[in-house]
Amino acid sequence: MRLSRSFIPTIKEIPAEAQIASHRLMLRAGLVRQTSAGIYAWLPLGHRVLKNIERIVRQEQDAAGAQELLMPTIQPAELWRESGRYEDYGKEMLRIRDRHERDMLYGPTNEEMITDLFRQTVKSYRELPQILYHIQWKFRDEVRPRFGVMRGREFLMKDAYSFDIDYVGAVASYRRMMLAYMRTFQRLGLKAIPMAADSGPIGGDLSHEFIILAPTGESQVYYDKDFEEIDWVKSDFDYGSPDDLQSFFYLMTSMYAATDEKHAPAAWQIVPPERRREGRGIEVGHIFYFGTKYSKAMNCTVATPEGRPVHPEMGSYGIGVSRLVGAIIEASHDDAGIIWPDSIAPFKAAILNLKRGDAACDALCETLYATLGPAAALYDDRDDRAGVKFADADLMGHPWQIVVGPRGAAAGKVELKRRATGERHEVTPEDALARIG
Ligand code: ATP
Ligand code: MG
Questions:
Q1: Which amino acids bring their CB within 6 angstroms of ligand 1?
Q2: Most buried among 73, 117, 209, 436, by the most CB within 10 A?
Q3: Spatial contact of 295 and 301, defined as CB atoms under 8 Å apart
Q4: Ligand 2 centroid from CA 285, angstroms
């Protein structure tokens, strides 16, 4: 994309309403704009990041054997009356009435709807197990929306739901999702630690929150540093092998990890001091097993091999896709701006033309831009001072900057800067392209 023609409204002033770095940077770099309290429009730069996160989440869900579908945002109240949650959910639920006076709501989550779809369709144990997911907007009328997209009212979530014939099957689905989550967060460039959690209003007893480390996190966390040292993407745990899933789960739960609510000082003392890590954390995902809570309440049954009707065992698995944009920035920024992990950066590289109108600069920039293509490169072709271009490139956080000045261009050289480390090298354009990959 050419910056001169783009819709990327960067701002220099620090927005007064933003209390934390990610919120300030998302506004300043032109990723989002608030349209009403806790509700945001995603502008092109932010939208690209959101789509990149979605893509990785989707690939890992698919690899784990989950199937994508898309349920609507608007749901009938009837389903929630069946489960008993219509009253329980309270003021967080946005309730709507249509022209026929029917009670509707903007979905805060989808357990009821997926259970309804499932009970209409699946009748036999032969069709199990199933893991179904979608990536869809949710609405929760949070009392205090804050920190930008981190605690919004409208937010994008990946939510998956598992259906199994028995407890053993449900536990296997749970482990499968847990492995998928470790791989997903690692690919997003994050250190995510699964922590045993209360299952909250959704109920059940097997529940983990995935917490990423960032100084502004809402909870204090304690964990074993071994979590950080395992490469989950390369690890050869196989989704098809129950033994693999069991040893993976054993590994996960044998290392210490707890939020302040669950912290157990006695068990913590057993972790060798050099392996103890603590810090602040942000919840980016949550998985839980809740048994037959919804299948029973909503009269959803499948037939066993003996022909006996049983309520399927269920679990649900959320990832806060839009919260992740803020959380990743919290975990990865400096005073100058955002530092995107390569896997989700809106553009791989920025090309900075330091002297527009200089024939050699213009020609070299155009060649670089044509080679990288508009999807990978943001070409700063504006009529601005070099200082403005440097500052904006740092603010927007592209992993690479290719700086093209008149002297270098005449000598067939560019400066290649790596945003994360600040390292700069004078190289030929070919070398720059090769390093960017
Ligand atoms: P929290 O404890 O932060 O309020 P939750 O436990 O209510 O979240 P879940 O129902 O577990 O949230 O939803 C799954 C994921 O959706 C969370 O792990 C989080 O990443 C994300 N999420 C939840 N609420 C919000 C929100 N208001 N804004 C943005 N993301 C959210
Ligand atoms: Mg939660």
A1: 109, 140, 142, 151-152, 155, 157, 283-286, 318, 320, 322-323
A2: 209
A3: yes
A4: 7
Per-residue pLDDT of the chain (437 residues; tens, 9 = 90+): 999 999 999 998 888 889 999 999 999 999 999 999 999 999 999 999 999 999 999 999 999 999 999 999 999 999 999 999 999 999 999 999 999 999 999 999 999 999 999 999 999 999 999 999 999 999 999 999 999 999 999 999 999 999 999 999 999 999 999 999 999 999 999 999 999 887 655 555 589 999 999 888 888 999 999 998 999 999 999 999 999 999 999 999 899 999 988 899 999 999 999 999 999 999 999 999 999 999 999 999 999 999 999 999 999 999 999 999 999 999 999 999 999 999 999 999 999 999 999 999 999 999 999 999 999 999 999 999 999 999 999 999 999 999 999 999 999 999 999 999 999 999 999 999 999 98
Q: What is the C-alpha to C-alpha distance for residues 249 and 254, in angstroms, rounded to an integer?
A: 8
Q: Is 347:373 a contact under the CB 8 Å cutoff?
A: no
Determine the distance separating the centroid of ligand 2 and the alpha carbon of 380, expressed in angstroms.
Answer: 41
Sequence letter at residue 392: D
DSSP 188: T
